[in-house]
Amino acid sequence: MRGSDERTGALFSYVDVESRIRSDHPLRRIREITNAALAALDEDFGALYARRFGRPSIPPERLLRAMLLQVFYGIRSERQLMERIEFDLLFRWFVGLGVDEAVWDHSSFSTNRDRLLSGEIAAKFLRAILAQPSVKRLISSDHFSVDGTLIEAWASIKSFRRKDGSDDDRPSPPGRNAERDFHKEKRSNETHQSTTDPEARLYKKGDGQPARLCYIGHAMMENRNGLAVDGGVTPASGTAEREAALAMLDRRTRRRRITLGADKAYDVRQFVEDLRERSVTPHLAIDGHLSKTGKARATAMDRRTTRHPGYAISQRCRKRIEEVFGWIKGSARLAKVKLRGRAKVDAVFTLALAAYNLVRLPKLLEASA
């Protein structure tokens, strides 16, 4: 029998959003972990907002859940995110909005988001997830890996101008950006600066690659299940990865010696000495490239480390950190960040690390049950 296409309206309709979400949906387990972490941040949220004056803001818990959805589904703008929350029952349920509740304006969402991220909430949220007992037993306390990746800044190469303002622009037609001829011009971060994002630096990570205005995102991963345990963003430089690795190690409390795996960019004698002073065994890939004279570069690693089977295991495990960066740049669409300023980029990148853990945790928890 053919069904009817006539619309049957009703004076009243009750939609139970909870019953519309299937019981085995991955976001159910993710929401449980997220809510537990948000409950642990209640005092931090209270410190960010005035208690007596002003109008009520967007609840920070709902704001952060909405930001997680934006990362999970790779939504490119706040305007599109608000549209999805307006019409998608799954999004409304995850954020905590009822069917009849109004969705926020995208500009209000952006303003409240910037306020929330200014309080290092992203880093505290990542730590709150990892501190949960069910998650903590999945994390290795002895073996870690570090790496860095370029995050392209939200700034055009044409905005890279001299700091003294001596650049001369060609005349341009009305309504267009000024012409900028920078070919064959020697430019460096010491003499030039982006007018759009002054904290972004011109950098390239390897020979034969174009230089871009960017930051460097850093991550520390535990080697048992490949979960991100720390991270952040720094200005791009040749020493930023090693300096960030030492900073992340200093933030960790430990009682015994640990191992740290990394690629050949970390194979520097001073860095190895710094690790040993911190009771960290370096499991670094050997940088043995040939010099112009045909001589192999002297590595900082020696046989007292490389002869152990654990070194080979760390070299296999450390490559999994590329999965973290691949997900952040691909699924979360952070290959080119759409915020300006290192503090905001750092917060968004750290939140993406937390989102990566949340995506992987339901299966890991189910397997360990």
Automatic annotation (TrEMBL):
One Pfam family of this chain: DDE_Tnp_1
Keywords annotated in UniProt: DNA recombination, DNA-binding, Transposition
Residue ranges of the Transposase IS4-like domain? 203-358
Where's the Transposase InsH N-terminal domain?
A: 16-115
Annotated Basic and acidic residues bias: 162-190
Q: Which InterPro entries match?
A: Transpos_IS5, Transposase_11, Transposase_InsH_N
Residue ranges of the region described as Disordered = 162-205
Q: Does the keyword DNA-binding apply?
A: yes
The entry's function note states: Involved in the transposition of the insertion sequence IS5.
The record's listing under NCBIfam families reads: transpos_IS5_4 (NF033581)
In which family does this protein belong, per the annotation?
Belongs to the transposase 11 family.
Record's protein name: IS5 family transposase
